[in-house]
Amino acid sequence: MGRKKSHSSAKSKHPTQPKKISSVKRNEIAIQCEKLFRLCSEPAYATQSWENYLEITAVLEKVKRLEEMKISTTKRSTAIEQFMKWLKDDGANVSGASIAEFPGYDLGLKAERDLSCNDLVLEIPGKLIFSTETAAPELMTIQNDPLIQHMPQVALAIALLIEKHKDNSKWKPYLNILPTTYSTVLYMTTNDMIELKGSPTLEAALNHCKNITRQYSYFNQMFQSNNNNQVSELLRDTFTYEEYCWAASTVMTRQNIIPSKNGTQMIHALIPMWDMCNHEEGMITTDFNTNSDTCECYVKRAFKAGEQIFINYGTRTNCEFFVHSGFVYPDNEHDGFKLRLGISKSDPLYNDRVALLDKLGFTSATTSFLLRNGSEPISDQMLAFLRVFSMRKIELDHWLESDKVFDLKHRDCALDTIVEENVRKFMQTRLKLLIANYPTTLKEDLALLNTTITPNRRMILQLRISEKKILAGALEYVEQWIKA
């Protein structure tokens, strides 16, 4: 749901139709795409993911050079007037807001009058909402393709490219108001990504880049080899990695879920004008009125005329915002640090521990938890896992036979002192190692915030700071626990 700020300002530019890539270059691109597909399809363990990413990036650089095109452009800001007219002509109610530039946010929505909490500010009719039901009917010719069939976000990205390269598309006013580049991880360099060293977000970012590259190589081969569908005919000469990154990032940063026309399922969609809103924590105040087939947006708090209108994108960690939306929210009360815990198969008590975990409802001997901000960083689920991890044979036997096994999730559960001490000492050691895994300290990162750095580096720095604050808070909690 929602969007992020792009690298481009209100004076950024949107592309016109690019020139076609020559057949000679297309042949070479096809060879490179075969390599990409193979590299992206091979399983890579966490320890190998960085090397795998570097291999993929090296091939991608060759592809980008081959696909490089000179594109004539016009200013994005010139598209605002036509976009607003398009909305109003098709029945959208946007009288309470306008599009304006805000420092640090690129474009956003500006209140045109004083608004009180729960005032209706936008009504966007279903016919103006971009989805595979309202746009790109050509997709029907490849509807049986597994990616189109089972990955709705991918289908929506291809639909965007179809409408972008069609002559006289009804969606042009909307497409022209969209950013042309984003601050998602797809646009980051290896020098940017290496700044994530020590962060659990690095693995998520690398996996995401790998998945998008695999999708690109898959569709590139499909469009070049398949002559029997409208999508291939339309995109064969214009499909590039840059184009697919743009489409995928547009979907990731702006998508929402709405009911399908027949009401039988929820579908992914882009909601023009509403998706110009930037994120702020608070109530979620957007709804879809099935009776009127309209997206209705109510303001979550009072806004004065001229102020930027914010909406809540939902409950997400900064890792999720960073990877999928291209921003970090410094005061994110829903933030968390992903911590993976597991039982080693070489543990002589492995079978007993797994049996007890199963009794507690865990489906795997390796599980990821979120360390949280606040006074209770360790969840009840994580505490139960740690207790099972730390038990001796005698405690395992007792709890495997007990009908009060779920007491293990209660903080005041009566356990042998040794078990509780082991839990605390393990967490203390683990947290110290996680903090030491970063190449910089929290103090150093806070100092770097006051220096001149690129937007990507600043965002990565904000992410590292938010993660380190969570770890520091959790370590303080555990050390106080040990003293108690």
Automatic annotation (TrEMBL):
Belongs to the class V-like SAM-binding methyltransferase superfamily. SETD3 actin-histidine methyltransferase family. Residues 92-314 form the SET domain. Residues 1-17 have a biased composition (Basic residues). Its EC number is 2.1.1.85. It comes from Microctonus hyperodae. InterPro entries: Rubisco_LSMT_subst-bd (IPR015353), Rubisco_LSMT_subst-bd_sf (IPR036464), SET_dom (IPR001214), SET_dom_sf (IPR046341), SETD3 (IPR025785), SETD3_SET (IPR044428), SETD3_SETD6_MTase (IPR050600). It catalyses: L-histidyl-[protein] + S-adenosyl-L-methionine = N(tele)-methyl-L-histidyl-[protein] + S-adenosyl-L-homocysteine + H(+). One of its GO terms (molecular function) is actin binding. Residues 1-23 are annotated as: Disordered. It is found in: Cytoplasm. Its main location: cytoplasm. GO terms for biological process: methylation. The lineage of its organism: Eukaryota, Metazoa, Ecdysozoa, Arthropoda, Hexapoda. This is protein-histidine N-methyltransferase. Keywords: Actin-binding, Cytoplasm, Methyltransferase, S-adenosyl-L-methionine, Transferase.
